[in-house]
Amino acid sequence: MKTIKAAALTLFFGLLFHSLTFAQKCDLSIRGKILHLENNDPIEGAYIWIVESATGAVSDENGNFIVKNLCAGNYSLTIQYLGHKEIKDTLTLNSNNFNKTYRLEEESLDLSGVEIHGHKLAVQTTTAVTALYGDALLEARGENLGESLKRISGVTTFSTGNSISKPVIHGMHSNRIMILNNGIRLEGQQWGAEHAPEIDPFVADEITVIKGAETVRYGPEAMGGVILVNPAPLPTKKNPKTNIYLTGASNGRSGNISVSHANGSDKIKGLGYQVQASAKRAGNIHSPDYYQGNTGLSELNFSGSLGYSSTKLGIEGYYSYFNTTLGILRDSHTGNLDDLINIIKNGRPFSDPGFTYEIINPKQVVSHHLAKLKSHYHLSDSWKLNFQYGFQANNRQEFDKRRGDLNAKPSLDLELFTNTLDLFVDHSLKNEWSGSFGINAIQQANSNVPGTGVTPLIPNYDMLNLGIYAIEKYSKGPLEVEGGLRFDTRSVSTARYVQSELQTADLSYNNFSAFIGTLYQVSPKITFNSNLGTAWRPPNVNELFSEGLHHGAAAVEIGDADLNSEKSIKWVNEIEYDGTKTHLEITGYANHIKDYIYLNPTGDTFVSLRGTFNVYEYLQANAFFYGVDFSASYEFSNRLNGYAKGSIIRAKNTEEDNYFPFIPSDRMDWGLAFKFGSLTSTKTNKLTLSNMLVARQKREPDFDLAPAPPAYALFNLGYQRQLEIGKDKLNLGLQVQNLFNTSYKEYMNRFRYFTDDMGRNILLKINYQF
């Protein structure tokens, strides 16, 4: 009997030990990533269910999911997401190495007024990406593109006065930054420091900045980064939406209105349209102590698109028109050498012209037409063929202070016609691989319109660029790895008359570019990405052949026909932490550029009947750019949160062991936002106080026309309120920029030699959505 009891106890404890041992081994996990088959974008909120264990998970904003505490064995997995075909998978789990990528196929459906077709073009990159949208974009309404993008760390502006600004990414601007307007590379006379982008920010529903070298995807002009200005997707069914924006500003007494309307067809599913128009008028800008003469502007813009989308086919036509007249600070054009020396020494104009809306010479008149036709066709569930054609016509006229009838004639009159063609194939396989390969071409013809009476600053030219590329991406759970290779060839032919002598040149350039990047989600809160890429840029025609007075810049520019192509290698690393109360992004980069081209002040002056001007020349040297961007926010309480963002950049001339001109100085922007009203309400109701700190640029070149200006600190105040009027929304905004009317000069403003920057500016912004 004792033997039986002992055996029974042994069996009992053996089974118990075996059960406990087996239970302890139920610590396995299933990891995975959920992506759109259409565009490789991550899906947030997909539902994953394990039948045998009756457990599940929901994918996060990066598409990742994990199901824990599973035993070894066979499992049936189901993935569901609204508007997508369900996935069922059978798997064997015997270790913690299981990690799989699933791609959900979208299907067209109509559910309570929501229609899904899914033809969005995602930003496919492992380098640092930041976007302006929602409330942040709403706050920026009424500003030009350069000023709007200053809200992103690592992005500043290179300006000529207060009306003209160009975005700067990690110290790069103009022909090193590519701007895409609704998918078409914007091609104007962007080589000029005072040539602002010909684009109306009101067309944008989202503005995205890619900070890495993106020449493989987009071509040579993307060596410094890319800015994507994307309108809202076209509607695919009848659902009218109208937006009205009204903006008024005290400084310059400016007014800005924009109206947009979008709707779809009730009879033809998938057919939709969108139209938008805006107008702007401003007078003389006011520095804290005086008005700046002839600094007004006027602007009139329009855009419209029509598209059709089905499960297999998509086609869209788009047109935009941009027209602006910009006054150039009259005191930047001086009469003689003594006047030029005295105004630079004085640091401000000698006269105060008062306020007026009148725009006289010197001024710019610019018009830009852009038309595009885009189409895609799904060859299969995994393969998609894309076609895009763009046409642009740009006319730039710059008027100088001249005598008599000549005052009505432009001193610079340029017409630029650009054709672009893109043909590429996307694939998103149901396994871990996705990518694209294709070809693109750009053809340009630039002409000097005769009759100016002035020797053209740049010659007439024809340019043809052909590129072929391939990009492949591997995504598995928290890991993404991608790489790409591209080859470009470019030919340029120029011609112009100089003192009745015809001068011609035929040039050709070609080069490879490549990149490799990775993104890894270390944990649900921490993401790390790294991108290493080569890039190149052939010298632009102005850098090669400029020879004379650049009227808008109030400077004489001298080119060098023997300049080589720039070649660079850039390494960008970014780590992001997204916690419950804390969000942190830190981006570090290093960029070595061989034969970097820059515009350098010579110290000489040029005297003519039209005045006295400083002389600049295009030079070339090896460069090393490096720096850090950071952005952080913290929620102190349910009502109070704070933010800080800033950038540090160094740009060294490694050949001469000195520094380049016109590189942004160190800066930081920090602020506090207090939320009013109900804590459960989703409507915006907040007050923001912020402070911009900008250091003096101590790393100056060996020679400059005047020392770098002192450091400065600006305070800004803002209030946003959203109201509901029935089913409509009313957004109200009040902003006070330079709250204490501080006198300051920005180093990156080319007119800092002649005047202070803008004083206090009070803005009222109204947006009505119905």
Please describe the topology of this protein:
Blueprint: H1 2-24, E1 28-36, E2 47-50, E3 55-58, E4 64-70, E5 73-80, E6 87-93, E7 99-104, E8 109-111, E9 114-116, E10 129-132, H2 134-140, H3 145-149, E11 155-160, E12 164-169, E13 177-181, E14 184-185, E15 206-210, H4 215-218, E16 225-230, E17 241-249, E18 254-264, E19 271-282, E20 286-287, E21 290-291, E22 297-309, E23 313-327, H5 337-346, E24 363-378, E25 383-399, E26 412-428, E27 433-448, E28 460-476, E29 479-498, E30 501-521, E31 526-537, H6 541-545, E32 547-550, E33 555-558, E34 566-578, E35 582-608, E36 611-635, E37 640-653, E38 658-659, E39 667-675, E40 685-694, E41 712-725, E42 728-737, E43 761-769
Parallel strand pairs: 1-7, 13-16, 33-36
Antiparallel strand pairs: 1-4, 2-3, 2-5, 5-6, 8-9, 10-15, 11-12, 13-14, 15-16, 17-18, 17-43, 18-19, 19-22, 20-21, 22-23, 23-24, 24-25, 25-26, 26-27, 27-28, 28-29, 29-30, 30-31, 31-34, 32-33, 34-35, 35-36, 36-37, 37-38, 37-39, 39-40, 40-41, 41-42, 42-43
Protein name: TonB-dependent receptor
InterPro entries: Beta-barrel_TonB (IPR000531), Beta-barrel_TonB_sf (IPR036942), CarboxyPept-like_regulatory (IPR008969), Plug_dom (IPR012910), Plug_dom_sf (IPR037066), TonB-dep_rcpt-like (IPR039426)
Domain TonB-dependent receptor plug: 124-226
Overview of this protein structure:
With 770 residues, the chain is mainly beta. The chain has two domains: 25-102, Immunoglobulins (Immunoglobulin-like); 129-764, TonB-dependent receptor, beta-barrel domain (Maltoporin, Chain A), CATH 2.40.170. It is globular.
